[in-house]
Amino acid sequence: xxxxxxxxxxxxxxxxxxxxxxxxxxxxxxxxxxxxxxxxxxxxxxxxxxxxxxxxxxxxxxxxxxxxxxxxxxxxxxxxxxxxxxxxxxxxxxxxxxxxxxxxxxxxxxxxxxxxxxxx
Length: 120
Fold this sequence. Notes:
flat
């Protein structure tokens, strides 16, 4: 670095929401919470069903349960922060939180190509 230059360390990022209107924020919170709940119940139900039934202990259902696990992890990366942003006035995320969120996306995203895109 050249001495004498101004520089500022980034400590927080401001997240821009979908809307600034309070009534729409509550509606969006309810919709996203419902979508998140359905996603989690469906994927965790698929995993539980695959593990509980011995007839489903085949490679195809193993891949479906891994896919459900990855989908659960992926939807759990962004949704909590989105829900918090819709409930509170704090629209920022720390630099560390952003790095952790990005690392989680990369970690879980590497499993998607391994399963292939052949209809699973």
